[in-house]
C-alpha cells in the first residue's frame, strides 16, 4: 500500500526526529493545508463563517487546554475564564488604539499573568481538588467581569470589537477573519507538535505519568506545571481574543461562562488528551453534533413525531457533552484521536494484522 | 582511599510513632560499590529516600561531596549528581524507551516553551546533541533493539535496564539502585550485574545498591551495610559482614548466639 513504514530509513538524527516521517502523512498534511487555504473559494460564506471559522478557533482553544490537561495531566475547569480575560483585555487594548497584533499579544499576556497567579495557588493541590480550584477561578473571573463596568461596560452590556487590521490588511471581510484564525490555529498546531518532541513537553508528560520519578531525574515539578499553566493560559487568551474579533464580533460575559469551560473539557476528552489530531476532531465533534442533534429534533418535532419544550432543547447539548465525556472515559479514554490512530496503524501494516515484534 | 563521596551522619527518621532509622551513619568512598542489605522493613529504602530527597531526616545530616544535601528537594539533588532507580519500575508509561532515556538528560536541557515555538532555530540543535549522548548509553546497555518501543510492552528485565539507562544519562557521580534485580531470573540478573559493573567502570561511578540476592551482594559489593529494624547491625567487606552472627540471625531468625 501507499501507506507504509517500509522504505523509510533515517540516516541522521534530524531526519529521525521530523514531524511526519511517513510520506503518506506528509501528503495528508499537505492536502489538508491546501484545502484550508482554498476554503474561502471552495465553500459558501455560510459554511465558512458558521462552521469552518468557529471550528478552527475552537481547535486552537482546545489545543491550548490540551497542553495543560493532556500533556501535563493538570485538569482545568475554568478555561473559558482564561479565554474571557484574553478577549476582554485585547478588546480594551484595541479600543485604546493599540495595534491589533499587540492587542492580541497583550490579551495573551494578561491571561497568562492572571492564569499563572491562579495556577500558583491552585497547584498546591492535585486531581479533583485542582478541578475545584480552577472552577473557583471560573466563577471569580465571571463575577469580576460582569460586576466591574470598566471591564464589561455594565452587567448586561455587549462590547463590540473595533475595526482592526492585521499586518496592514484590514480585517473587515469574512475571508480576512478566516485567514487570521487559520494562521493562529496553524501556529498553535505547530507549537503543540514541537512541544511534544522537546524537553518541555517530555518534562510535562513525565510529571503526568510519575511525578516522583520526574523529580528524581531533575524535573522541578512545581515550576514545570506553572510554566504549563502560563503557556496554556497565554494560548487560551489569544484564542479567546481571536474568537471575539474574528467570530463573535462582540463580547458579553455569558459567552465565556461555565458551560463553555465544560464544552472545552469535552472537546479535549472526546478528541483525545494531548493529541493534535484530537484537538481538531474533538472541537469539530463537539461543535457539530449538537447542531445536527438540534436540527434533527426540531425536524422531528415539526413533523409531529414528538414535541419537547424549547427549554429542554436548549439544554440538550449540555446533556450530550456529559454523555459523551462519560462514554469516552469508559470506552475510549484516549478519544477520537485513538480511533484515528488505530485506523492509521491498521493501514501501516496492511495486509498483515500487526507488526512483527 | 580518598575522601568519602557520600557521608551519612546519625540519620534519624520517624513516621508518626515509628522510628524507622535509628541514628544510621555510613560513608561511601569514591568509586566503590556499597551494598545496603537487610530484611523487609529494615529501613533500606527509607535511607535511600532520605539521600535522594524524598523526605528529609528529622535528625542527622547527609553530605555529598562535602555539600549538605539533606533538606534539598529531589530535583536539586539530581542536579547535584545523584541519580537513582526504583524498586518498582518507575518509567514514564506514555513514552517510548528513547523518550524515557532522553528524560535523563533533563538537567542539561532547557525546558522552555519558547524553544519549542522556535524549534528549528532553538530546540533542534539541543535535541540532536542530547540524542547523541543518549545513543552512547543505549549502546553501553545494549538497548538498541527496543529503542522505539513503548516502555509498557517490553519485558520487566528490559524495563529495569531502561531505568538504569535513564539514570546514567544524567551523568551522575553517584548512582543509587533500589533492588535493580527484583523479580528477575538468573540470566537477567547476570546481565544486570554485568551492566552495573560496566557502567561503574566506564563512567567512574560510586554505587549504592539495595539488593536481596545475597550472591549478587557478595560478588559485586566492596562493602556492605546491614540494617535491621532501623539499626545498623553490621558494616564491612561483603563476605565478613554477611557471615556476622547477628546478620544471619536477622535473616534466618532465631538467636544471635545460635550461629
From TrEMBL, chain A:
Q: Where in the cell is it found?
A: Cell membrane
Keyword annotations for this protein, in alphabetical order, are: Cell membrane, Membrane, Transmembrane, Transmembrane helix
| Aminoacyl-tRNA synthetase keyword on record | no
| Membrane-spanning parts | 27-48, 55-88, 100-121, 128-145, 176-195, 226-250, 256-278, 285-306, 318-337
Q: Per UniProt, what is the membrane topology?
A: Multi-pass membrane protein
Work out whether the entry's keyword set contains Nucleus. Answer: no
Q: Which domain of life is it from?
A: Bacteria
CDD domains documented for this protein: TM_PBP1_LivM_like
Protein name (database record): Branched-chain amino acid transport system permease protein
Q: Which organism is it from?
A: Limimaricola variabilis
Taxonomy of the source species: Bacteria, Pseudomonadati, Pseudomonadota, Alphaproteobacteria, Rhodobacterales
From TrEMBL, chain B:
Q: Which PROSITE patterns match?
A: ABC_TRANSPORTER_2 (PS50893)
Annotated signal sequence is none
* Domain ABC transporter: residue ranges: 6-254
Query: Which InterPro entries does the UniProt record give?
Result: AAA+_ATPase, ABC_AA/LPS_Transport, ABC_transporter-like_ATP-bd, P-loop_NTPase
Q: Which Pfam families match?
A: ABC_tran (PF00005)
Record Gene3D superfamilies = P-loop containing nucleotide triphosphate hydrolases
**Which is an annotated GO molecular function term of this record?**
ATP binding
Q: Which UniProt keywords apply?
A: ATP-binding, Nucleotide-binding, Transport
PANTHER family given in the database record: ABC TRANSPORTER ATP-BINDING PROTEIN, CONSERVED COMPONENT OF ABC TRANSPORTER FOR NATURAL AMINO ACIDS-RELATED
Q: What is this protein called?
A: Branched-chain amino acid transport system ATP-binding protein
Q: What is the lineage of its organism?
A: Bacteria, Pseudomonadati, Pseudomonadota, Alphaproteobacteria, Rhodobacterales
Amino acid at each position: 500500500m501507499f501507506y507504509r513504514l517500509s522504505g523509510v530509513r533515517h540516516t541522521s538524527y534530524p531526519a529521525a526526529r521530523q514531524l511526519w516521517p511517513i510520506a503518506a502523512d506528509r501528503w495528508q498534511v499537505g492536502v489538508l493545508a491546501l484545502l484550508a487555504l482554498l476554503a474561502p473559494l471552495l465553500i459558501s460564506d455560510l459554511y465558512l463563517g458558521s462552521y469552518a471559522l468557529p471550528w478552527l478557533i475552537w481547535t486552537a482553544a482546545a489545543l491550548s487546554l490540551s497542553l495543560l490537561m493532556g500533556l501535563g495531566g493538570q485538569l482545568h475547569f475554568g478555561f473559558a475564564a482564561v479565554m474571557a480575560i484574553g478577549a476582554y483585555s485585547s478588546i480594551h487594548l484595541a479600543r485604546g488604539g493599540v495595534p491589533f497584533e499587540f492587542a492580541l499579544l497583550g490579551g495573551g499576556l494578561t491571561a497568562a499573568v492572571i492564569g499563572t497567579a491562579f495556577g500558583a495557588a491552585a497547584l498546591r493541590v492535585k486531581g479533583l481538588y485542582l478541578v475545584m480550584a480552577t472552577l473557583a477561578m471560573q466563577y471569580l473571573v465571571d463575577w469580576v467581569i460582569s460586576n466591574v463596568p470598566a471591564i464589561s461596560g455594565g452587567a448586561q452590556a455587549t462590547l463590540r470589537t473595533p475595526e482592526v487590521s492585521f499586518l496592514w490588511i484590514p480585517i473587515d471581510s469574512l475571508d480576512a477573519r478566516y485567514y487570521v484564525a487559520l494562521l493562529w490555529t496553524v501556529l498553535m498546531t505547530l507549537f503543540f507538535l514541537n512541544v511534544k518532541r522537546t524537553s518541555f513537553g517530555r518534562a510535562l508528560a513525565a510529571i503526568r505519568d510519575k511525578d516522583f520519578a520526574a523529580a528524581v531525574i531533575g524535573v522541578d515539578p512545581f515550576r514545570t506545571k506553572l510554566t504549563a499553566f502560563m503557556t496554556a493560559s497565554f494560548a487560551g487568551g489569544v484564542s479567546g481574543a481571536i474568537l471575539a474579533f474574528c467570530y463573535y464580533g462582540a463580547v458579553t460575559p455569558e459567552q465565556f461562562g461555565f458551560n463553555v469551560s465544560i464544552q472545552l473539557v469535552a472537546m479535549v476528552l472526546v478528541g483525545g488528551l494531548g493529541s493534535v489530531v484530537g484537538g481538531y476532531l474533538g472541537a469539530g465533534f463537539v461543535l457539530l453534533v449538537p447542531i445536527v442533534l438540534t436540527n434533527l429534533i426540531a425536524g422531528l418535532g415539526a413533523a409531529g413525531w414528538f414535541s419537547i419544550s424549547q427549554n429542554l432543547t436548549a439544554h440538550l447539548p449540555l446533556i450530550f457533552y456529559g454523555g459523551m465525556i462519560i462514554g469516552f472515559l469508559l470506552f475510549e479514554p484516549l478519544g477520537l484521536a485513538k480511533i484515528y490512530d488505530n485506523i492509521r496503524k491498521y493501514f501501516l501494516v496492511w495486509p498483515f494484522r500487526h507488526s512483527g515484534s | 582511599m580518598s575522601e568519602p563521596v557520600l557521608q551519612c551522619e546519625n540519620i534519624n527518621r520517624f513516621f508518626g510513632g515509628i522510628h524507622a532509622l535509628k541514628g544510621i551513619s555510613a560513608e561511601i568512598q569514591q568509586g566503590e560499590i556499597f551494598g545496603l542489605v537487610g530484611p523487609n522493613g529494615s529501613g533500606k529504602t527509607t535511607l535511600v529516600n532520605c539521600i535522594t530527597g524524598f523526605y528529609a531526616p528529622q535528625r542527622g545530616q547527609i553530605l555529598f561531596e562535602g555539600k549538605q544535601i539533606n533538606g534539598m528537594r529531589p530535583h536539586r539533588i539530581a542536579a547535584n549528581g545523584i541519580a537513582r532507580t526504583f524498586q518498582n519500575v518507575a518509567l514514564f508509561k506514555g513514552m517510548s524507551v528513547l523518550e524515557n532515556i532522553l528524560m535523563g538528560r533533563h538537567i542539561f536541557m532547557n525546558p522552555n516553551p519558547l524553544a519549542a515555538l522556535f524549534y528549528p532555530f532553538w530546540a533542534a540543535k539541543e535535541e540532536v546533541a542530547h540524542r547523541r549522548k543518549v545513543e552512547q548509553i543505549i549502546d553501553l546497555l545494549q538497548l538498541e533493539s527496543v529503542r522505539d518501543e513503548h516502555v509498557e510492552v517490553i519485558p520487566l528485565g528490559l524495563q529495569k535496564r531502561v531505568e538504569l539507562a535513564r539514570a546514567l544519562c544524567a551523568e551522575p557521580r553517584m548512582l543509587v539502585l533500589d533492588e535493580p534485580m527484583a523479580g528477575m531470573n538468573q540470566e537477567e540478573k547476570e546481565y544486570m550485574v554485568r551492566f552495573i559493573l560496566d557502567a561503574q567502570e566506564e563512567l567512574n561511578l560510586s554505587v549504592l545498591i539495595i539488593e536481596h540476592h545475597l550472591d549478587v551482594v557478595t560478588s559485586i559489593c566492596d562493602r556492605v551495610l546491614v540494617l535491621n529494624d532501623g539499626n545498623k547491625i553490621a558494616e564491612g567487606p561483603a563476605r565478613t559482614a554477611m557471615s556476622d552472627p547477628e546478620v544471619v540471625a536477622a535473616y534466618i531468625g532465631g538467636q544471635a548466639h545460635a550461629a
